[in-house]
């Protein structure tokens, strides 16, 4: 019988969470690993030892989308003071997390702070750092941007040569203070901190099993499950506890762990979410979600953490690589290249800038149109627009100016302003648009609500024609692997044909990046990417209800029982790979 455990992340109600005292730690001695010196000039790909692992999946029931008008799903979000929620106009998939880990630098927490700045685009509503000093894990977490959570005095409270950090996007409700990572917990053999990017598709089943055995949960985050699994593991030495815990997980996870003397990085067997390794000139080892974080703190990129790999760093043995489990073909998230990652990052071994530039070139080749100027929806559509303009031989100009100083809410005047949220964020340049045939390049269309407002904004600025070009295929299915997307019935491409979408958003023509052209562009790497949001075919089938409904209450980590989560989720789709007929849920877009 599994040991009863009470593993609760530190409360973040005060600026400095109470440090957790050390019990004792383990050294790492096992023949089934590859050891590297802590300060090597080069790092070769490890030989991963074979493991035996069996994955069981089961097909959820199908939810058929309704034919209600898409506008039925949305209502104006307004606070008691009359301020409007600007986020409702953002209409983009949300990457939920970014992680960083640093070992062997006397200013680890400050470097962690800077790296989180570079990863701020991956999550803007919560940030935290855990540092290790004198075998004690100290944690500071808070709600808001990295610059709002941390200052000089708080960083002074995080001394030590080892630290991990996390930024998150809150998926619903208020700011979810309890759910801000990294989580820190004490158990019988010491203390551990964890930061997680991804989503576990078997979270509820694991939580139910743990609660039956006496575990007490303090948050509604799936990451806390990992801490409990480590606590009840009887494996030795310590890193095998992480291996044993991760073998029970299904879904997407790129995680960094910290103990009294070790930094550990783990990536799931499919490699859904990115995680890279670098090294500073003083030999400090750095892990981060994107290479842009390495650039800011002057760490040299060495390689990715391979899918299914556990990397353990300590002073005694340096960097050790261990196989998590035998892994199938990688299924890396294609949306990292379409939208999430910064253009200056290298993700999955490819330049994000180059990928987006080629997406634009493909659109210009396969969906040409007579035009006078090419503009982008900033910021994520800029590189694709540059590629489109270069291929089409048409000037690229800045037709929309984005405000980078817009907060989450603004007080709207009593005289209602149409398209208020979009106008706060985007301002048209009349001199660029007036009397012109304009091609507008955006990275994606999710619900279509923002796109229609942008088209109206450009036409009101005097554009003669507006032609939308989207640098991704139509999104027809929800993501279960760490991206906040609406349920399938809210996705406009799942409900309407391309022509119907064109009419809905009010542009003169509309074209998406062809799915086949995207895979052709990726060439031999094409099978290594996950396209579930475009095809509805899931590499790891969602076993549980894990897609949000807009407007439903979800536990914010501060109030509301765990059962209240049920109201915010709907059943996931079945595996299309095993079906002879196309599901009605996806039929319209797959014609």
TrEMBL record:
Residue ranges annotated for the Glutamine amidotransferase type-2 domain, each copy included: 97-316
Which Enzyme Commission number(s) are listed?
2.4.2.14
Cofactor entry: [4Fe-4S] cluster
Keywords attached to this entry: Glutamine amidotransferase, Glycosyltransferase, Iron, Iron-sulfur, Metal-binding, Purine biosynthesis, Transferase
- Gene3D superfamilies xrefs: 3.40.50.2020, Glutamine Phosphoribosylpyrophosphate, subunit 1, domain 1
Q: Which domain of life is it from?
A: Eukaryota
Q: Where is this region: Disordered?
A: 1-28
SUPFAM superfamilies xref list = N-terminal nucleophile aminohydrolases (Ntn hydrolases), PRTase-like
In terms of PROSITE patterns, this protein maps to: GATASE_TYPE_2
Q: Which reaction does it catalyse?
A: 5-phospho-beta-D-ribosylamine + L-glutamate + diphosphate = 5-phospho-alpha-D-ribose 1-diphosphate + L-glutamine + H2O
Q: Family, per the entry? A: In the C-terminal section; belongs to the purine/pyrimidine phosphoribosyltransferase family.
* Name of this protein: amidophosphoribosyltransferase
């Amino acid at each position: 019988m599994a040991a009863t455990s009470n593993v609760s992340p530190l409360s973040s109600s005060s600026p400095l969470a109470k440090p957790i005292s050390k019990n004792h730690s383990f050294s790492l001695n096992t023949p089934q690993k590859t050891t590297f010196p802590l300060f090597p000039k080069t790092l070769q790909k490890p030989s991963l030892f074979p493991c035996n692992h069996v994955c069981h999946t089961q097909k959820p029931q199908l939810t058929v989308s309704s034919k209600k008008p898409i506008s039925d799903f949305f209502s104006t979000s307004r606070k008691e003071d009359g301020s409007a929620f600007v986020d409702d106009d953002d209409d983009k998939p949300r990457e939920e997390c970014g992680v960083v880990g640093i070992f062997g630098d006397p200013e680890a927490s400050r470097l962690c702070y800077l790296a989180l700045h570079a990863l701020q685009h991956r999550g803007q509503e919560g940030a935290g750092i855990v540092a290790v000093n004198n075998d004690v894990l100290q944690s500071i977490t808070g709600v808001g941007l990295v610059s709002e959570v941390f200052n000089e005095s708080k960083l002074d409270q995080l001394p030590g040569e080892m630290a991990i950090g996390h930024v998150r996007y809150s998926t619903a409700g208020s700011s979810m203070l309890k759910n801000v990572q990294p989580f820190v917990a004490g158990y019988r053999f010491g203390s551990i901190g964890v930061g997680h990017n991804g989503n576990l598709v078997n979270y509820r089943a694991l939580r139910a099993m743990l609660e039956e055995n006496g575990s007490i949960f303090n948050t509604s985050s799936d990451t806390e499950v990992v801490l409990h699994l480590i606590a009840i593991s009887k494996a030795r030495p310590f890193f095998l506890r992480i291996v044993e815990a991760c073998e029970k997980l299904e879904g997407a996870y790129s995680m960094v762990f910290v103990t009294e003397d070790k930094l550990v990085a783990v990536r799931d067997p499919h490699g859904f979410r990115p995680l890279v390794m670098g090294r500073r000139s003083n030999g400090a080892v750095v892990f981060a979600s994107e290479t842009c974080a390495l650039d800011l703190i002057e760490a040299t990129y060495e390689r990715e953490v391979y899918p299914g790999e556990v990397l353990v760093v300590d002073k005694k043995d340096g960097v050790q690589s261990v196989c998590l489990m035998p892994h199938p073909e990688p299924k890396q998230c294609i949306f990292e290249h379409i939208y999430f990652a910064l253009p200056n990052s290298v993700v999955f071994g490819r330049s994000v800038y180059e990928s987006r530039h080629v997406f634009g070139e493909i659109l210009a080749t396969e969906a040409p149109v007579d035009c006078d100027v090419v503009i982008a929806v900033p910021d994520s559509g800029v590189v694709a627009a540059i590629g489109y303009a270069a291929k089409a031989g048409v000037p690229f100009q800045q037709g929309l100016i984005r405000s980078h100083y817009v907060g989450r809410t603004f007080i709207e005047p009593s005289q209602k302003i149409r398209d208020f949220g979009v106008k706060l964020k985007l301002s048209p340049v009349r001199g660029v648009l007036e009397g012109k045939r304009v091609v507008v390049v955006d990275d994606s269309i999710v619900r279509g609500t923002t796109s229609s407002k942008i088209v109206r904004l450009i036409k009101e600025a005097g554009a003669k024609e507006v032609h939308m070009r989207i640098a991704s295929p139509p999104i027809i299915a929800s993501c279960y692997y760490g991206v906040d997307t609406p349920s399938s019935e809210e996705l406009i491409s799942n409900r309407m044909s391309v022509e119907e979408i064109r009419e809905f958003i009010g542009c003169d023509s509309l074209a998406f990046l062809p799915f086949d052209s995207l895979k052709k562009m990726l060439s031999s790497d094409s099978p290594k990417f996950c396209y579930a949001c475009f095809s509805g075919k899931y590499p790891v089938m969602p076993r549980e209800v894990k897609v949000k409904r807009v407007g439903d209450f979800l536990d914010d980590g501060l109030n509301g029982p765990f059962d209240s989560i049920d109201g915010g989720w709907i059943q996931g789709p079945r595996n299309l790979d095993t079906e002879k007929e196309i599901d009605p849920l996806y039929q319209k877009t797959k014609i």
